[in-house]
Amino acid sequence: MARDRDRGGDRDSRDNALVDFVVKIKRSACVVKGGRRFSFNALVVVGDKRGKVSYGYGKANEVPPSVEKAIKEGEANVNRSKKVSLRGNTIPHRVIGKFGASKVIMVPAGPGTGVKAGPGVREVLQAAGVTNILTKVHGSTNPMNLVKATINGLNQLRTREEVAALRGVAL
């Protein structure tokens, strides 16, 4: 097993080239008669760097099992998720993703710009294979809501050909 997972390390090539990034690990405590009992929650983003991306959420009494559970859930969700429409290594148009009180604005950028994004949003975009993009977050900065808002925005993307086909016009 890879030990650099919490730093966003790549998975083995035998797993269909899926990459996973640990976004957040939270500790929660349950007060019992003898003291406190701690448990851990892990939020992980999984993608294939070719347009498919999803997230997983795992809970356990230790950090490594919670991360493993989250990765397993994320890998299962990646297979069910739809492929994001990308234009080269950026997005085709400006889009706003919303979830809860979080709003993520994503703007396409030219080559060499890089991923200008905060934590949570950056991991989703890297897992999807986007390398040049500008983002801005408004509202809540809850990592779970940011991940869901970013995925929501990516699912709204359409290429010129898809829009032309939907409208029934020729380019």
TrEMBL record:
UniProt-listed PROSITE patterns: RIBOSOMAL_S5, S5_DSRBD
NCBIfam families: rpsE_bact
Key words, A-Z: Ribonucleoprotein, Ribosomal protein, RNA-binding, rRNA-binding
Record text on subunit structure and interactions: Part of the 30S ribosomal subunit. Contacts proteins S4 and S8.
Lineage: Bacteria, Pseudomonadati, Planctomycetota, Planctomycetia, Gemmatales
Protein purpose: With S4 and S12 plays an important role in translational accuracy.
InterPro entries: Ribosomal_Su5_D2-typ_SF (IPR020568), Ribosomal_uS5 (IPR000851), Ribosomal_uS5_bac-type (IPR005712), Ribosomal_uS5_C (IPR005324), Ribosomal_uS5_N (IPR013810), Ribosomal_uS5_N_CS (IPR018192), Ribsml_uS5_D2-typ_fold_subgr (IPR014721)
Family of this protein: Belongs to the universal ribosomal protein uS5 family.
Gene Ontology biological-process annotations: translation
GO cellular component terms, A-Z: cytoplasm; small ribosomal subunit
Species: Urbifossiella limnaea
Superkingdom: Bacteria
One MF annotation (Gene Ontology) recorded for this entry: structural constituent of ribosome
Protein name: Small ribosomal subunit protein uS5
Comment, domains: The N-terminal domain interacts with the head of the 30S subunit; the C-terminal domain interacts with the body and contacts protein S4. The interaction surface between S4 and S5 is involved in control of translational fidelity.
Boundaries of every S5 DRBM domain copy: 18-81
UniProt-listed PANTHER family: MITOCHONDRIAL RIBOSOMAL PROTEIN S5
